[in-house]
Amino acid sequence: HFWASCRAKRQIFALSFISNVSFCEQNKSLQGLVGLRNLGNTCFMNSILQCLSNTSELRDYCLRNGHLTDLNNNCRTNTALMDEFAKLTQRLWTSVNTDSVSPSEFRNQVQRCAPKFVGCNQQDAQEFLRFLLDGLHNEVNRVTIRPKVSVEDFDHLLDDEKGRRMWNMYLAREDSKIVDLFVGQLKSSLTCTACGFRSTVFDPFWDLSIPIAQKSTGEVTLKDCLRLFTKEDVLDGEERPTCTKCKGRRKCTKRFSIQKFPQILVLHLKRFSDSNIWASKLSTYVNFPLKDLDLWEFSSEPSERPVYNLYAVSNHTGNALGGHYTAYCKNSAQGEWYSYNDSRVSPMSSSQVRSSNAYVLFYELATPSHSKYQTCRL
Ligand SMILES: [Zn+2]
């Protein structure tokens, strides 16, 4: 039965491959190697737009106008941001004989929704990414009337069941193509040092802001940074939480683990301090893998082996007072890396992708745990 179903899928795959070939022959310019003009301090926006344009599933959603179906079903009135984002993505992948396109219509929508991202101030690319994904999600949310949150007591449940219920509660309110791709679930465990009681909290995340590990000798790896992020933390003094079991403010230990891995994992390297974003910048070289980033040790469920491959990086060069953003993206059709520096797009070697300028990393899950095609890879 297994082989019969694989054979059927291979036939479907073969047919879709043939139609894809003719599609590509008709559209030789369908490459995504088009730059974005700088409209005056818009490199942070261009960098993020190129990373998102090279997110295959999001690009395909825009190319096949999937957002229009979602918009129609929702009867929303204000869908201008998604409209402009989709139009721009389509132009990046279908423009003929064009080196660069202007993102001015898209920028106008950003200005309407979030004026703070337009102007001459230095902007933060990760902050912009959060704003953009949130804005796009709200316009294509499949949920039109969000149900009221019923405060249910899940404390009697086992952790996994609690996590699942919390995730379903989230999906009941927030459910879109953007959520399908980018949102994961973080588990935080709090243990009371007085009575030993452990409580868990589950939160959705759109990206993870990872502190940069510091080492006196040797290089710092992405896993060092992730270990620092998930390391047990002591909450003491003024930070002491109230223990629900022994009913008092107690010294507690806290640690994060990943309960649900997203399809697209966005890792933000905290190069700028929280308190004053442009006060100082850490230019530490963080060594990150381009392939096979195995995150099992950060999973709440030790039997899970989530493996990710890198496909885009948003880079920040310069210092805390002034700088420039570029993007390095892997072209999904060719498997080659390109550097996107506003209107200029140039090929690059994969060995140049890692640098101390890397600021936001975009990884895609290589082993989709819920994919029905998982066992039939060709
Ligand atoms: Zn306690």
Automatic annotation (TrEMBL):
GO terms for cellular component: perinuclear region of cytoplasm. It is an enzyme of class 3 (hydrolase). GO terms for biological process: protein deubiquitination; proteolysis; rhythmic process. It catalyses: Thiol-dependent hydrolysis of ester, thioester, amide, peptide and isopeptide bonds formed by the C-terminal Gly of ubiquitin (a 76-residue protein attached to proteins as an intracellular targeting signal). PROSITE patterns: USP_1, USP_2, USP_3. Residues 34-366 form the USP domain. One of its GO terms (molecular function) is metal ion binding. It is found in: Cytoplasm, Perinuclear region. Its main location: cytoplasm. Its EC number is 3.4.19.12. Gene3D superfamilies: Cysteine proteinases. It comes from the Eukaryota. Keywords: Biological rhythms, Cytoplasm, Hydrolase, Metal-binding, Protease, Thiol protease, Ubl conjugation pathway, Zinc. Belongs to the peptidase C19 family. USP2 subfamily. This is Ubiquitin carboxyl-terminal hydrolase 2. It comes from Amphilophus citrinellus (Midas cichlid).
